Amino acid sequence: MQKRKTVKEEISGSETVFEKIKSKTPWIFGNSLRKPKIAYPQIKLPKMDMPLPGKSLVVIGIYIILFLLQMGIVYIIYREPVAIGADQQGNAVLLYPDLNEAFIIESIVASIFIFLCSIGFLLVYQASKYVYNKKTAVKILVIGIILVITAFVALQAIITIKLGERLFNV
């Protein structure tokens, strides 16, 4: 009995996955299934030279957008609250006495504290980059922790006052 040698047809390009499978198992696909090889034209599009803003400008823009979102700009536009309130005697009230409502000034102050807390966490992260310079790392870490704790305490004080409780029970 003579062995038949299969002659592979010459195909330009590399062998496809289907052709590799077909060469090992010709009874599955036979000669009917072939993946076409397409030669795509090399098109060179003209490039436009536009000046792009620096990375620091983009980061500043992102921080401004985050500040406005934290401030509750959507709430301020939708609900149109008053900027600052007053009691019956005409004294200025900075915090609205209800937890579900807020003055514009209150939103801005809370947003500033949240922003300071965010900067504190960024400084704590930056302190980890100065592993070999312990003095700098400790300074940045302490400033970051102070910012986080100060912002947390201030926001807790705002919520406590809004709930109508006394801040210091003396």
What does this structure look like?
By secondary structure, this protein is mainly alpha-helical. It has a domain at 81-162. The protein contains 6 helices and 2 strands; from the N terminus they run ααααββαα. It is elongated, with a radius of gyration of 34 Å. The model has no long low-confidence stretch (mean pLDDT 80).
Question: Helix proportion of residues, in percent?
Answer: 40-55%
Distance, first to last CA: 108 Å
Number of strands: 2
Q: Give the C-alpha Rg.
A: 34 Å
Name the shape in a single word.
elongated
Question: Structural class, from secondary structure content?
Answer: mainly alpha
Stretches with pLDDT under 50, minimum 5 residues: none
Annotation field: number of helices: 6
Element order: H for helix, E for strand = HHHHEEHH
On the 0 to 100 scale, the average pLDDT is: 80
Any key phrases for this structure?
2 strands; 52% helix; 6 helices; two-stranded antiparallel sheet; 2% strand; elongated; mainly alpha; 170 residues
What is the topological layout?
Elements: H1 17-24, H2 26-29, H3 55-71, H4 73-79, E1 85-86, E2 92-93, H5 104-127, H6 134-162
Antiparallel strand pairs: 1-2
